TrEMBL record:
Domain of life where this protein originates: Eukaryota
Annotated spans, Disordered: 1-23
Protein name according to UniProt: Retinoic acid induced 16-like protein-domain-containing protein
TM regions (residue ranges): none
InterPro entries, per the entry: FHIP
Length: 697
């Protein structure tokens, strides 16, 4: 090989030596020099006249330390610089330098170094108690609103919250890290009984026990990345309650549930008391622009629901409300979950939301609209059943479900409450009780149903629109609570059944009404599309019936769907029918909301369609040839069971005669009356159809 090399004039290649930047020893030497420089700069006496260059030098050293730490984390072992950082506790010096400097650039560089140490897997800095105390001391000094904080911009605060989120995520995945960041101190004894009750109600504020948790709680209402990091980090903390009895007990006895409930109440209180839901001219939908829709609100003090300010406030409130249900989803402790729900019910529902409902009025043309609109937005944003049920059961004065369970000291489905949780709930009830019980108004006296009815009957179109929208939302999302409260119902009689032939007759009659009003070639296509939408809505409510289960027959399935009929004496139904009768004089947005309300009622599988929308089966009358269906010659060869099925099919296909006006469905009679009004207008104005066509174009 040497001979060939000399012959060809080449030299054998040698392995490249390790570059100085990749040598752990070289990195360690550089790291030590930078660390000692930082140490010497921190030990110098402060001189305001020469502090500028010193801070610049300190900032440069910290940036280079940050680069070395991150480079070391990516490099293969050995990690000598990280070992030196752990053994010499450089994080204490860096945190002290950032705190003393009061310089944002130095603080940013220090936070970046601490974040790099947290991300490193070599020395497990996150489990170090001294590291945790140094970091929390720095962060508390910089962003804690209760102390003399240092001025920092949003980017620095975001970096700090991202670091706290990373720590919370590590605690979630590695529960053994929690004791380094959380230490429950002994509960102070209180001699004064009254003070003790108040303290139990509010909870103990012990930020030194778990400063990480308080820093996150203070920012869960924020928008942007700061709020995202705070909310997600706090979710991870609540998820850790299932693995730490000490943390569970501490949260129940602390003021965290109170802070969360009062924070939600504060955001709700920021919303405008008077609201206008009129669309502005610039964004007016076409269906409203072609009508006599008015965009002028009679009360100038009402805030527009489409203003940037209101949308921002509403988004913040709904974001915090959604965070509440996320906390309940992630919480692994039954006691903590019950305590949170207690505070939500007593401090938010009973002390804030219901009084705002009670104090709202349709006279000022704004406060009722605001409360109804806020309630509708809350129900549309929530998905967790216990929160929705708690709200509606209390506001609708329904004594079932979750509220009934709260009145029991022991739940049959869950383990009993801890003494701390029971004491906390009792303190809430005691200290929020009215001093004059006789003057106290509860939902049993004036409920959300009363507010909806008052506003549906209101001459103010905005009030009627907001009430119909809320009623539709409750009917669509919580029909089990809407039946018997908003909609008065009666038990259905199953002695008579509807027939397919009756459905065909009803469809033909309603189609004839639609054709008489607007005979258009696309009417059939529109009907097919609407029928498909209705089918999807109905199928979503029908429970799945497995073909392998033989316990339920067809009759049982029918019983599970059509349980009730609408009561003719129901106040909401009568008010809605009264609005429908004045359809042509109503505001166009009220008519749109009213249409959606009737669609929601018709799509509710628990309510039979007769007699308000369909013919009453008890009043079916048939022609002579429909009474006894003719037997086909080929039917004689059928077996007994097949003949029975064939006879049942013939019976269900019979078409009843359309009855006189007094026995027609209620909705059909009203629509027929409205059509007659249109025909009368056509007689007096023969060019009505032409005028409507011109208006559309």
């Amino acid at each position: 090989m040497d001979f060939l090399s000399r012959l060809l004039g080449t030299t054998p290649s040698k392995a490249n030596p390790k570059g100085p930047g990749n040598d752990p020893e070289v990195r360690l030497a550089k790291f030590k020099r930078l660390y000692h420089t930082v140490l010497s700069l921190c030990n110098r006496p402060r001189n305001l006249s020469t502090e500028g260059p010193l801070l610049e030098q300190l900032h440069g050293c910290l940036q280079r330390i940050d680069a070395i730490v991150r480079e070391e984390s990516r490099a293969p072992a050995p990690h000598l610089s990280l070992q030196f950082a752990a053994s010499n506790r450089i994080y204490t010096v860096i945190a002290r330098a950032a705190t003393a400097s009061q310089n944002e650039a130095v603080i940013q560089a220090s936070v970046s170094i601490l974040a790099a140490l947290v991300d490193s897997e070599e020395e497990d800095f996150v489990s170090n108690v001294i590291f945790a105390k140094s970091l929390m001391r720095l962060v508390t000094r910089v962003v804690d609103g209760d102390s003399d904080t240092l001025p920092v911009n949003i980017s620095t605060e975001t970096a700090i919250l991202e670091l706290l989120f990373t720590i919370a995520a590590k605690i979630r995945l590695q529960p053994y890290l929690l004791p380094s960041w959380f230490h429950a101190s002994a509960r102070p004894e209180l001699d004064d009984d009254a003070l003790g009750e108040k303290q139990d109600f509010v909870g103990f504020t012990q930020k030194n026990d778990f400063p990480l948790c308080y820093l996150l709680v203070d920012r869960v209402h924020r928008e942007g990345r700061v709020g995202d990091f705070a909310r997600t980090g706090l979710l991870y903390i609540f998820e850790a309650t299932g693995r730490s009895p000490d943390l569970e007990e501490w949260i129940v006895s602390s003021d965290l549930p109170t802070l969360m409930a009062t924070g939600l109440g504060a955001l709700y209180s920021q919303l405008s008391r008077e609201l206008s839901i009129l669309h502005p001219d610039a964004t007016l939908p076409a269906v409203l622009a072609m009508s006599d829709y008015s965009t002028t609100h009679p009360r100038a003090t009402a805030e527009s629901a489409f203003s940037d300010r209101h949308r921002a406030d509403m988004a913040t409130f709904l974001s915090y409300l959604t965070f509440w249900q996320d906390v309940l989803d992630h919480c692994r402790s039954a006691d903590v979950k019950r305590t949170l729900l207690d505070h939500f019910q007593i401090l938010f529902l009973q002390q804030l939301l219901y009084p705002s409902l009670l104090q709202s009025s349709d006279i000022d043309a704004g406060s009722s609209v605001a409360v109804l609109t806020y309630m509708n937005a809350m129900l549309e944003s929530l998905e967790r059943p216990d929160l929705i049920s708690m709200m509606l059961e209390y506001l609708l004065a329904v004594k079932t479900g979750y509220l009934a369970e709260l009145d029991q000291s022991v739940s049959s489905l869950e383990p009993p409450r801890s003494p701390t949780s029971m004491r906390k709930r009792q303190s809430l009830l005691t200290l929020t009780a009215s001093q004059h019980p006789d003057d106290e108004v509860e939902p049993a006296l004036f409920s959300l149903v009363d507010l909806i009815l008052n506003n549906v009957r209101s001459p103010n179109p905005q009030s009627a629109f907001a009430a119909l929208k809320l009623a539709t939302t409750i009917l669509a999302r919580q029909r089990n609570l809407a039946l018997g409260t908003i909609l008065k119902v009666e038990k259905a009689d199953y002695t008579t059944a509807r027939t397919i032939g009756a459905l065909e007759v009803e469809t033909e009659e309603y189609t004839e009404l639609a054709t008489s009003l607007h005979n258009h070639s696309g009417l059939e296509d529109a009907y097919i599309g609407l029928a498909e939408d209705a089918r999807t809505t109905v199928e979503a409510q029908v429970p799945f019936q497995s073909p392998t289960l033989q316990s339920q027959g067809p009759g049982d399935v029918e019983m599970s769907s059509s349980l009730f009929i609408l009561s003719r004496n129901g106040a909401f139904l009568r008010a809605s029918i009264a609005l429908l009768q004045t359809f042509f004089s109503n505001s166009i947005d009220v008519n749109l909301a009213l249409t959606q309300t009737f669609i929601s009622i018709a799509a509710c599988t628990a309510i039979r369609l007769d007699p308000w929308l369909a013919l009453d089966p008890a009043r079916y009358t048939f022609d002579t040839d429909e009474v006894e269906p003719q037997q086909r010659p080929w039917a004689a060869g059928l077996e007994v069971e097949e003949q029975a099925h064939h006879t049942a099919l013939q019976q269900s296909s019979r078409r009843p005669v359309w009855p006189e006006k007094q026995h027609q469905p209620t909705l059909y009679s009203i629509l027929q009356g409205l059509l007659q009004e249109v025909n009368n207008i056509r007689v007096s104005h023969p060019n009505l159809d032409h005028l409507i066509s011109v208006r559309k174009t």
